[in-house]
Amino acid sequence: MADDTPRGFDPGAAGPGSSAAMRTDVACSLTISSPVPATALLQVAVAAPTTEELTILSAGQPRHAVETQVDGARVHKLEVAAGETTISYSASVESGGAPREVTAADWAEYLRPSRYCPSDQVEGFAAREFDQDVERGALVGQVAQWVTDRLVYVAGASRPVDTAIDTLLAGSGVCRDYTHLTVMLLRALEVPARLVAVYAPGLSPMDFHAVVEADVDGVWKTVDPTRLAPTSSLVRICHGRDAADTAFLSLFGGRATLGRMTVTATVDGDLPAPDAAPYPLP
């Protein structure tokens, strides 16, 4: 598998084999409506910005968000007033990023089943479907390619509560479903894997995107089974066991709902070429 470390995946300097530095500009705008005050948790800030701006207007008044770190992710907590709240975020990223090492704690967390990736229920299926005797990079590539070939991308085909098993049976889904199925199968094959929320230049239609990181020889490697955007241009927001850990917006209290949303992600220059098919080996 190629070294497709996305920009912003590590705040350190670019290391050997990392993607070349280029500026990527990302932005999003969210509108929340609520008849009563509510609390929101926001995960839209990139990991290592060179410049950024977060603006919040709630019921026509500026609001401040409290930032905290959760497993490397930047989470903003804000109080939403009754009425309409608009959240605008923009950032630029220039670092190529260095490969991220897989730790012992990562093994403990990302080999276990999770809410949307019940890997313990498909161990027999995965063992019969894939050859675990091949080297790790080839196995990760085989699983990602299998999911690419097995599923059909259909917007709105899945429900927020669907697990990877639902996706496997339905044969269709969106990026989070592709990612959940890939993560579930890899964990069933004893490969640590996790979901990563990203901005994805080249994605069409543009939206927040989800991809997979898997342990290959002690380093997190990135694959996108949807093949909707080049992995070398991705900008990391956060990672987690599955979508339950990486939601861009969580609302608590009252009856707040998400209204309008826009997402943009562009590079300065030519967009990198899409990943080769089938997935390259190391």
TrEMBL record:
InterPro entries: Papain-like_cys_pep_sf, Transglutaminase-like. Residues 1-20 are annotated as: Disordered. Residues 11-20 have a biased composition (Low complexity). It comes from the Bacteria. It holds the Pfam family Transglut_core. Transmembrane segments: none annotated. Residues 167-227 form the Transglutaminase-like domain. PANTHER family: BLL5557 PROTEIN, BLR5614 PROTEIN-RELATED. This is Transglutaminase family protein.
